Amino acid sequence: MFEAQLIVDRDFALAPLDRRLFGVFVEHLGRCVYNGIHEPGHPTADEHGFRGDVAELTKELGATIVRYPGGNFMSGYNWEDGVGPKEQRPRRLDLAWFSTETNQVGTHEFMHWCRKIGIEPMFGVNLGTRGPDEARHYLEYCNHPGGTALSDLRRSHGAEEPLGIKFWCLGNEMDGPWQICQKTPDEYGRIAKETAKLMRWVDPSIELAACGSSAYDMPSYGVWEDRVLEHCFEFVDYLSLHSYFVKPPVGQGSDTSTEAFFAQIETNARYIEDTVAIADAVATRKRSNKRLKLSFDEWNVWYRARHGEHLKQAGWPEAPRLLEEVYTAEDALLIGGMLTMMMNHADRLKVACMAQLCNVIAPIMTEPGGPAWRQTIFHPFAQAARWAHGEVLRSVVKSPGYANARHGELPYLCASVVDDPATGRTAVFLLNRHLTEEMDLSITLRGLGAERRLVQAEQLHSADLNASNTADAPDRVAPQPLEGIAILDERLSVKLRPASWNVIVTQAIRAA
Ligand code: AHR
């Protein structure tokens, strides 16, 4: 057993937490859409073919925004293929995933699904094979009230009212050699600027995200951000980040240990901080007070189902099984730690999308005609999305730590605290990275109300870090009650099991 402390103070708030930090991603890829969220023959399917069981799990996950329709798919997509009578929609070769796209799900079907879930859509425009002209037309089709050819076309397709899609991504991973029509930073920066300009003229109420590099460890990282923003800084609201956590982690040699795996939390913190620094340097150069926001619109663990037939199958199949990563308890702990880190960057990080939602590197898995179940990573996401409301407080962590090749000494404790003055509730999120020892933790919640009552306390822990949830055993890894929390005035004390993710929610009975 070892001792650790977490201290927060009501007066030391970092920023309001943007609830769009709990976003997800639905791409036309593998079985994410077809035979995932959409399976017309399934016993739970609605009149549009969307599975009711997946819809219920998505609500339980608590996702607030969903990115669509890609990903790499976006860079070859013709939005016109996915609107109008279904029987007239073309079948196309999808060059991103070497599959056949049937276009049976398109803009209107996806918007129906968003409304059914109660989730905000985040759409993207194709800046690979297409460009500004297509983007302005797509936006006009979606958001213009009526009286023009495109907005009236939408109305003739059954959507009398504008779709009101507010958040738009300007392409996807345009620096990647795998991207359909990869671009140089100057080519992309110019196109992003001109596209943003036209889109804002069509609908000034939208928010726009430009593509950052497709990963922190891309050779293009840094120079890409700087050059792209040189062109489009004044025209966009967000810069995107993408990160997939791998084993062994980048920059840590061949170290496949869990401790090194968990150090990717710090790697991604650096990624965010470095990106903020670059954006602010561009602002300085431009004599601008603007502070660009970040959209971490792809993030997850992805290293097992990442090669060979997991990426590409012969014969241009429809909805093949691609990127179907099976997650472990170890992955769920890293996801929990990542969530604490992202909350702790809430001053600049406003949007994030776990990639993806269903079957494809996903918290929800399905079998055609069969069940849907929660992967291990579902749980920390759902807990954070449920309880993190209000303002993120600056956490002071005092904890022993371990040595890491890339980052030096790392504390065993990762923590974030979110306080909601409206309800008096304070949610504390905790990862004990020690693999064998219990943590004796003291939590001080200064100025948040003298008397507190416990609202909820749960832990996620598995004796076997390789344990996963399957169709046969869907709840092998699931949260359990966290017992033994002592509350004395402003202090909570609790023992956290080794290798555990924990959520403690308390509520002030009397104001401070
Ligand atoms: O999420 C899977 C793929 O990963 C996305 O299509 C792409 O943007 C990224 O490289």
From TrEMBL:
Cross-referenced SUPFAM superfamilies: (Trans)glycosidases (SSF51445), Glycosyl hydrolase domain (SSF51011)
Record GO terms (molecular function) = alpha-L-arabinofuranosidase activity
> Coiled-coil ranges per the record?
none
Task: Tell me the enzyme class.
Answer: hydrolase
> EC number(s) of the enzyme?
3.2.1.55
Entry-linked Gene3D superfamilies: Glycosidases, Golgi alpha-mannosidase II
Q: Which Pfam families does this one have?
A: Alpha-L-AF_C (PF06964), ASD1_dom (PF22848)
Query: Per UniProt, which keywords does this protein have?
Result: Carbohydrate metabolism, Glycosidase, Hydrolase
> Catalyses which reaction?
Hydrolysis of terminal non-reducing alpha-L-arabinofuranoside residues in alpha-L-arabinosides
**Residue ranges constituting the Alpha-L-arabinofuranosidase C-terminal domain according to the UniProt record:** 297-500
Cross-referenced SMART domains, in alphabetical order?
A: Alpha-L-AF_C
Subunit and partners: Homohexamer; trimer of dimers.
Q: Which family does it belong to?
A: Belongs to the glycosyl hydrolase 51 family.
Q: What is this protein called?
A: non-reducing end alpha-L-arabinofuranosidase
